Amino acid sequence: MNTKVKKDMIKSIAEYTSFLKLPGIRRCFEAEIKEAIQNDISYESFLFSLLEKEYDLRQERSRENRIRYASFPYKKYLEDLSVADLPEDAQKKFNSLKTLDFIKSGQNVILAGNPGTGKTHLAIGLGIKACLSGYKVLYTTVPLLVNQLKESRSQKVLRAFESKFEKYDLVIADELGYISFDKEGSELLFTNLSLRTGRKSTIITTNLSFERWDEIFHDPVMTAAMIDRLTHKAFIVNMNGNSYRYKETEKWLKEQ
């Protein structure tokens, strides 16, 4: 094959991979051709190598997209957690939670305890691991979720929002208890969390014990129903303990 024909063919391959949206192959096919020629690699092995690189790139991009679309406020990995500094109950249940079996079985996780004990870090760490494992995840604070539900109702797109919300494999609803809601907000939150019960998993972080949830919802009947549905077969983790956040800050200061 003369040089001009070869160059034209390389150019055409690049154009085809661009048109067919094969960025992994586009990125490496020339190097793979050279290696195949030099090492007398079979056609099957050459093709397998190209497809494998395309597959690996797409898998990596899918993981990155799942993490991005989950809307985490920041990235916190389970590997970054100092498990020994978590509250005792969290330490005991950590290994069970990190298997993500609770997502497979549609169980909820309630992380309840005083501020600064690692609730949000643990929730986000589980959420990121879920994204890396192929699950579709959404992170939101409870106040933001309530506002989105209200806005969706006023704009007459609530059904579409609810349909999307109930399909997430895992929803992390952070900061339940920091503000209370009016009747509309309480009912919308109750309805949408209930839609997921027994089918999809929800992680809720809260600084309030269950007997104080009526401070948020201002309706004893709704509060009781909410607790009953969310806690059914759930992992309830007692996150009361010393401030994990303070320990992290103290460690950081020592390293400076």
Describe this protein with a few key phrases.
single chain, about 260 residues, alpha/beta, Rossmann fold, 2 domains, five-stranded parallel sheet, elongated
Structure explained in plain terms:
Helices cover 60% and strands 10% of the residues. By secondary structure, the chain is α/β, with parallel strands linked by helices. The protein folds into two domains: 67 residues, no CATH class; 178 residues, P-loop containing nucleotide triphosphate hydrolases (Rossmann fold), CATH 3.40.50. The chain has a five-stranded parallel sheet with strand order 2-3-4-1-5. It is elongated and about 85 Å long.
Secondary structure elements and pairings:
Layout (H helix, E strand, L loop, with lengths): L2 H17 L3 H17 L3 H27 L18 H11 L2 H4 L4 E4 L6 H14 L4 E5 H13 L3 H8 L4 E7 L6 H14 L4 E6 L7 H4 L2 H12 L3 E4 L5 H12 L1
Parallel strand pairs: 1-4, 1-5, 2-3, 3-4
Helix pairs in contact: 1-2, 2-3, 3-6, 7-8, 7-9, 9-11
Class by SSE composition: alpha/beta
Under the CATH scheme, the architecture of the largest domain is 3-Layer(aba) Sandwich
Strand content: 5-15%
CATH topology of the largest domain: Rossmann fold
Annotated CATH homologous superfamily of the largest domain: P-loop containing nucleotide triphosphate hydrolases
If you average the pLDDT, what whole number results? Answer: 90
Give the CATH class of the largest domain.
Alpha Beta
Reported for the largest beta sheet, the result is: 5 strands, parallel
Number of strands: 5
Instruction: For the largest sheet, list the strands in their spatial order.
Output: 2-3-4-1-5
What sort of overall outline do the alpha carbons produce when their principal axes are compared?
elongated
Low-confidence stretches: none
Order of helices and strands: HHHHHEHEHHEHEHHEH
Distance between the termini: 62 Å
What is the alpha-carbon Rg in Å?
24 Å
